[in-house]
Every structure is written in C-alpha cells, then in structure tokens.
Amino acid sequence: MTKWKPAPVQVLIALNAMLLFFVLLEDHLSIPRWLQVAGRLHPAILHFPIVLIVAYTVCLWLRPAFFTDQLLLLAAFAAVITALAGLLLSAEGLYEGSAIQWHKWLGTLTALILMLLYLGRDSAILGKVRQKWLAILPLAAVITAGHFGGDVTHGAGYVLAPLRTANPTPPFEDALVYRDVVLPVFDARCIECHNSANSKGGLNMEDSLRFVTGGRNGKPWDTTAEGLGLLLHRIHLPPDDGKHMPPSDKTQLTAREAAILYAWIRDGAPFSRKIIDLDPTDTLRMIAARLLKSSGSERFDFPPADDKKIAALTSNYRTITPLANGSPALAVDFYGAAFFQPKQLQELSTIKEQIVSLNLDKMPVTDKDLPDIAKFSNLRRLNLDFTRITGAGLSTLTRLPHLQSLSISGTRINAADLDQLAAIPSLRKVYLWKTGIAASAIGQLQVRRKDLELITGFNGDTVRIKLNPPRLETDARIIRDTGISIRMRHFVPGATIRYTLDGTNPDSGGQVYTVPFLVKDRSQFQAKAYKPGWLPSDPTRATFYLQRYPPDSIHLLLPVDSNYLKISPHVLIDADKGDLGFGSGKWLGFRKNAFSAVLYYRKAVTIREVSFSSLVDIGSFIFPPTQLEVWAGPDEHHLKRLGTLTPVQPDSILGRKAMPAYLTEYRIEFPPQPVRCLKVIANPVAKLPDWHPGKGQHGWVFFDEILVN
Questions:
Q1: Which strands make up the sheet holding 523-530, listed edge to edge?
Q2: Which end of the chain is flanked by fewer CB atoms within 10 Å, N or C?
Q3: Cα angle value 169/175/181 (rounded, 5°)
Q4: Distance between CA 97 and CA 302 in Å, rounded?
C-alpha cells in the first residue's frame, strides 16, 4: 500500500496540538470577529467527521483493506477541524452549562483518539484485531458528543423525550399558575436554550430560584418598569432584531402564550399561587379554564366534528380548538371586533352539535344574534362580556338545555332581566361584573335559585365594600346649540355623587350632584360615588364634544372598506357618537383607501377648527392616521389647505397590552375662515410595524363624527 507523505501527518499533529491548547486556555482567549465566522461553520461541517468515522469503522470490520487508512486520516482531519470550529463558536459566550462542557471535551477526545489511531495504525502492538475494537472508541465518543450537542441546541433530554411519560395534567381546582400554565410555555419555547445544562446568557429557567435571579443581562422582569422588564421586552422586539426571543429560527410564541407571560408578570410572577385563587375575570384564570379540565369534567356522547370542517371555519379572527385532548367538544373564540359579522355565527351551524364553549368577549354582538347562539344545543359556557346585548334577549338562552356558565359582565342588563336567568335550570354560574345591578335584586334571585352562583366581584360581608360607579343616564355626547342635560343616579341609598368637568379626580373639589344640569361646552366628565363606611367607587367617565356648525351634507370621494358599504356617510355628521363597538353601525372604517370626504353648507359659516372623532384599538389593527388634512373654500373646485396634523403612532406592542381600546379626537385649528365647502383627508397606516402581529398588513382608521366649530 502506498504510504501517505508525512506532511499531512505533521499538519494533523499541529492541529490537534492547537486544539488541546485552545481547550486548556479557552478562558484566556479573545476571538476576533473574522475568526468568529469560522466558528459559526461548526453546525454545517459537524456531520462530515460522523460519516467518516462510521465509514472507517464499517470498512475496518467488513473489508479491512478497503481504503481504511485513507478514511481514518480524513476522519481525523474532519474531527479536529470541526472541534476547532466548535471551540471558536463556544468562545462567543452564547452557550453555558454542563452540556457544552461535555460536548466540547468529547469532541476534543474524538479528534485525539483518531490521530493516535492513525499514528499507530502500523504498530505491531495494535494489530488488526485490536484496531477493530479500538475503532469503536471514536465512534462511541462522537455519538456521545452528539448527544450532548443535541442537549445544547434542543434542550436536555431531547433525544429521549418522546419515550418519557408525560406528567398528568392536574384538575383545574389543583392547578398552580406557574407550574401548569406558565411553565409549559417556557418548556416549549425557552428552556431548550436556558437550562441547567445549557444556560445561554447565564439564564437558567429550569430552576425557579435561579430563574428569578436572571442572567448576565439582569433580572427577567421588573413589575415597576415600563414594559415590565427584560423578558417581555425581548419577546416584543422585531423578529429580525438579534436580541429578539425566541430567536427567529425557532418556533415563535403564539398570541395566547404571549398573553400568558404578560398576565403572569403583570400579576407579580407568582410561583406557588393556585389558579382557583385568581379573580374570576383574571386573564390567567380564563386561559387556564380553557387549558385545564375540572376534576368533574364531563364526558360527551356526541361524535367529533370533521377536521376539514374545523379547518375551513378557522381563521385569524375565529379559532376552534378541542376542549381537551381526545375530546369531541369544541371551544370557539372570536377575536378582532372590527372583523366580526353575525354571519360568522351562522357559519358554525355545521359543527353546532360539538360547540360547548363560545367566547364572544367584546364582540359587537346584539340581541338579534342570540337566536343563532341558541342553536348550539350542547353549549355549556357562554361569554358575552362587554357585548351590546340587553336583557330583552336573555329569554332566548332558555333554549340551551346544558348551559352552565354565563358571563354578561359590562352589558346593559338590569335587575328585572335576572328573572329570565332563573328559567335556565342547568345554569350554575353567572358573572355580573360592572352591570350596576343592585345587591338586593341579586339576593332575591339567589333566594329562588340557591343552586345558582351570581358573581359580582364581592365575596365577603366583613370588609368595606366599594360602591358601584354612578350611572350616567345621558346618552348624547355631542353638544349643539342648547347644550346637553346631565342626569345621574346611584342604586345605593344615601350615596353622594361628586363630579368634575375638567377631567380631574372628583375626590377633591368635585361638585355634589343634586339635580340635572346643562353642559354647553366640550368637557372631560368624571363622577364618583361616596358613602360613609364604603369605599369610593371607580369613576364614571365621559367626553362631551362640541359641534357648532353641523354640515348639511357629506360626500365620500373614496369608498369605505367593503364591510361598511351599507352604512351611510351621514353617520359622520348625525351627532350620534359611537362607542368602542365599531361594528355598531355608527362608524365608518377605511383600510386600503384613505378617508377623503367633502362636507357642504347651504350658507357660508365662519369656522376656526375641525375635529376628527376617532377610535384606536391596536389589537384590532386600528391605528391613529398617519396624517390628517383640512381644506376649505367657497366650493369644491376652489379649496385651499387650512391645516394638517400628524398624530403620534404607538411604538410598542406593550402599549397595546397595557392600554385597552380608546376613543380620541384629532383637532386641527386655523385662523377664522368663511366656508361653504370643506374637504377632510385622513391616511391609514400603509403597513403595520414589525412588532405588531399583523406586521406588513394595512392598518385601519375609524371615524364616527366630523366636528366643525
């Protein structure tokens, strides 16, 4: 056999000496940037030594003369080069923990064994038989090194994870916030890179005590900081940012997982608190109720729905998921009130038998939609919180023979409507937060239905009770010539109502309400209720807008979005203010087109400001306009621009999570001008920012009134 020239052997020995030198002195090495590129080739080349070692071992056992020396030399070179690249990569400090140390030393050992086998291949001491058995050593070393490499990149125990028996999911009543709701998110998205074997950035999330202390960049959360700290900040960075977590090449957090982490940190990041101890309206509790079974979970005897039907009905704004693994029961959740239409409920008729949970929280659902809901004959849980239903439609729900839980918090039901709930024999829980229903009416219903739990947010009679906010009985919000009469009431006898009109807290300096009064100018109204022995109520707030010169007519120059084609443009000048339910018919929405309209007056008026009454709901893709313009003149052919405005855009998804949807007004002022024609323009966001779940899509703008003064 032709002998290899000694030059390659000398290079091999030099590379192994360098490898050993780097391993022993790695804490003192400083790797230049250009050499880091070579280190990052480690994942790309690590398969070469594995293949060559396997080929060498197989050939040595089956056909000893079949290029075994050449294969051994190639394997030795591939192993030492791969090990050197791995050392350069680890020197960047991206990986920490025991797994990376084992991976590093076993890779080095593999390279050294291969070199020694090659140098001693012709030794009489080794012999052909011994070489066969010694060839198993580098094979075993590289397999073990690969195992620890998998732990580094995919988390501890990655290879054998499918064989492990999953921990049984505890019932809802016994579940802990962190262990059973939060930790599964970290297990799925974070712990593979932040564990005891591989703690990237010095952060170990497997051990709660070490997790709390954080890593090299500090503690993972701070409930007093804007954005609640480092962990949430990293999550909401743009995906192409090098500090975004999880890294862009890993599976990203779902919207539900991000909501779990935000709610957990917002609540103080508790580790030992039980789910059952959370407020019934707490985000974590509501999510946990979906994820975890109760100890008395039902068994359902109806067949499962067809998977193709479920897939066809699922969208970005309507999710359909099994109530539990293996269960035929389905839970339906609606998102994005801007995109809700009643027909979306009707479309669910093909799986109506399987729907047992329906979440319509904050959707613009009205009494007209309740008959469609009543067709879901197996419905157990129904969430209608903060919808537009009234008590007039509650009788429809008596058609649901299995309904157990009903959430109608923040709706316009009153005490008289509660009698209809008593007619649903299966009903066991009703959530009545922020309805203003008197405690006496609730008590009367509980006397008749002792098996029915009415949850109003108060569970004790030995503490000071917070009063409900005063009820503002004035519906109008836009002031014209004569002003608006403000009427208020409170259901607790002896409660005093104090109010202010400048947005300040009524606690100090507020006027006492006794009789209705007129508001004649724009105002930021606040009112609170007080009574000795009770805690003051939360404030009732309202904004009153001014419209001195309502236009006589309006014409849209560009069409509204297709969802709003049936709504007349007259809603923008009818003095009927909309609320947060932008599907109420009082709003016009623009997405692909700008809002561009001409307003006409029969007689000239002298004006000095134009206001755009608008809505912002970042979670529903509704952003402030990028720019607003006002033009005016004697007719639409002779207009001049009077002013522009560039509203401030939100710059973080954290703003959306900390701030709910809100109404706002964009006002453009200018010197007094006589006009008979006005042109107003508002441009929506062309592309939503990278931090938003809908990045790259068109943003919405919504308007319900154009106010001229």
A1: 478-479, 540-546, 523-530, 496-500, 511-512
A2: N
A3: 75
A4: 51
**Which among 153, 118, 143 has a CA at the least distance from the CA of 50?**
143
How far apart CA 18 and CA 38 sit, in angstroms, is 15
Of 379, 429, 174, nearest to 292 (Cα)?
A: 174
Q: How far apart are alpha carbons 143 and 118 in whole angstroms?
A: 20
Residues in a beta bridge with 535: 466
Helix extents (H) in 218-328? 230-235, 255-266, 283-291, 307-313
DSSP 26: G
In this structure, which amino acid lies at residue 530?
Y
Element (H, E) at 185: helix 183-189
Contact 528, 497 (CB under 8 A): yes
Residue 701's beta-bridge partner residues? Answer: 590
Closest CA relative to residue 517, chosen from 484, 471, 480: 484
pLDDT tens column, 495-553: 889 898 888 888 767 888 887 788 888 888 888 988 887 888 888 888 888 888 999 99
3-state per-residue secondary structure call for 296-353:
CCCCCCCCCCCHHHHHHHCECCEEEEECCCCCCCEEEEECCHHHCCCHHHHHHHHHCC
By three-state DSSP, how is residue 542 classified?
Answer: strand
Q: What is the pTM of this model?
A: 0.39
Residues with Cβ < 8 Å from 574, sequence gap 6 or more? 705
Decide: 523 and 502 in contact? Cβ < 8 Å: yes
Give per-residue pLDDT as tens, 615-638. 888 877 889 999 999 999 998 888
Going by C-beta distance under 8 Å and a sequence separation of 6 or more, which residues neighbour residue 109?
Answer: 141
List, in order, residues 6 or more apart from 255 with CB less than 8 Å away.
Answer: 693
